[in-house]
Specification:
By secondary structure, the protein is an alpha/beta fold. Helices cover 60% and strands 14% of the residues. α1 crosses α9, α2 packs across α3 and α4 runs parallel beside α5. The longest helix has 22 residues. The chain is globular and about 50 Å long. The two termini are 12 Å apart.
Length: 190
């Protein structure tokens, strides 16, 4: 079963996915994390991705899809996979749908917070792409290219909104609850 975590940079998707995966035995796949590892290891993929990431641009779809396709193909029946930072474009969302079994995507959790909160959280993180001008650009890219996925998953009846303006613990409780409901529904449909 796949659950997508949607929301702007800085909203806390990664923190939430990591904590839920850890306590619940779910799998967490962060494309940003995979890319940062590739950059750190100086691989060809990392070298390709780095300039996009440093500017706050999206890494091209074909690079991302090449990176995640093998992983998506091996999602097992009993596995609960939290996708964090993927898909980020409509092309990626279509590819995800094409590469997974019908019904495998159970929900898209949409984490919401005000722009002020996002910018404050991004400044607090100290990552290389969290510099002020890069932050502005990443938020603009999000609004332009990734935000349309909200309507895409809404129209499929998969969108679940989570207010991420609260404490990490409160958001975590809702995150675990939303995924647990998906698992229960899946069992009922058996
Ligand atoms: P994140 O850790 O999710 O904030 O991702 C960090 C950076 O990695 C982004 O700003 C993009 O440059 C790149 N990235 C991560 N995931 C994707 C994706 N699905 N599509 C394109 N670029 C991505």
């Amino acid at each position: 079963m796949i659950v997508i975590l949607l929301g702007a940079p800085g909203v806390g998707k990664g923190t939430q996915a990591a904590a839920a995966a850890e306590t619940q035995g779910w799998t967490h796949l962060s494309t940003g994390e995979v890319l940062r590892n590739e950059v750190a290891q100086g691989t060809e993929l990392g070298l390709t991705a780095q300039s996009y990431m440093d500017r706050g641009d999206l890494v091209p779809d074909e690079v991302i899809l090449g990176m995640v396709s093998a992983r998506l193909a091996e999602v097992s029946a009993g596995e609960t996979l939290l996708l964090d930072g993927f898909p980020r474009t409509l092309a990626q969302a279509s590819a995800l749908e094409a590469q997974t079994a019908p019904g495998a995507i159970s929900a898209a959790l949409y984490f919401t917070a005000s722009d002020d909160t996002l910018v404050n959280r991004l400044h607090g993180r100290g990552r290389k792409d969290d510099d002020r001008s890069v932050i502005e650009h990443r938020l603009a890219v999000y609004r332009e290219t990734t935000a349309p996925l909200i309507d895409f998953y809404q129209s499929k009846g998969l969108l679940r909104e989570i207010n991420a303006e609260r404490s990490i613990d409160a958001i975590q409780a809702d995150t675990v609850e939303a995924v647990t409901v998906c698992l229960q529904n899946m069992e009922l449909q058996g």
